[in-house]
Design brief:
alpha/beta; 336 residues; single chain; 9-stranded mixed sheet
Amino acid sequence: MNDSANIHSEPAALNAPISRRNALIMGAGAVAAVTILPALGLGAHNTSAANAASYPARKGAHDMDTITMKDGAKIYYKDWGTGRPVVFCHGWPLSADAWDAQMLFLANHGYRVIAHDRRGHGRSSQTFTGNDMDTYADDLSTLIETLDLKDITLVGHSTGGGEVARYVGRHASPRIAKAVLISAVTPMMLKTDDNPEGAPREIFDGIRAGVLADRAQFYHDFSMPFYGYNKPDAKISQGVRDSFWQQGMMGSLASQYQCIKAFSETDFRGDLAKFTFPTLVMQGDGDQIVPITVGSLRTAKLVKGATLKVFPGAPHGLCTTLADQVNAELLAFIQA
């Protein structure tokens, strides 16, 4: 184990009484599961057993865990399944829960899946310092080293894609076998003299203003373009919008505010040049948050040998709205 990190288990509240409201929610969840479980790969274990058998079950696994960073920040992570590891890095302002559809699908196909809440997001410590890409990458490195993960497929969405890139550039870890960048903020979001393809600063100043003025309302509104629900033919899921809002509001205002600078102003071009392993770049060309011309089209050119997959009309949050298609692409890439 890394001397600089400690793992803590958080016991579940198993003895809490179940209210009538909670019972109804649990029942509704069970009904919903009947319709979504096939899409998540339950029952499709024909390829999973052999993969899992190659990787022994880990010892001391917990349902809820945190790892303590060098500065004392506690990073929450989820760790499901056994097999070759797949590590996920989420987007802003979300949490590890944004990856649930991918995690369950891959776990049911014989992979060990790990996703953490970035510092200041979700259930991790609400830090006022360290809300920058270098520290995010160092936190990811500590998680990977502490869990002693090897032969990893590293997956990042949006800001998480930047986290993946900075980790590769900063740590050059031999533990990484493959990488996937989905709707990533790479190579650089902000328009500057040497990055004329970027977006104007006014866009990010608008995000900052919205978060400061009324974060709760801003996240509620932001979920519409995030998932493409503002399009005339969109089938809106209020549940997905509520989940986005809940994940965002779990995080720290200060950390999320500072993260806007991190995801918009960090230059990842040097990091992308250090990718020496198979890399899949995916994005929808209907993305209203990170335009594909700013993100993936440029990223794929900067990563040597990268494979580019474009989803026609798909929004920024395609891991949720097109989960079955994203899952299929991930599985095929990992198995290749």
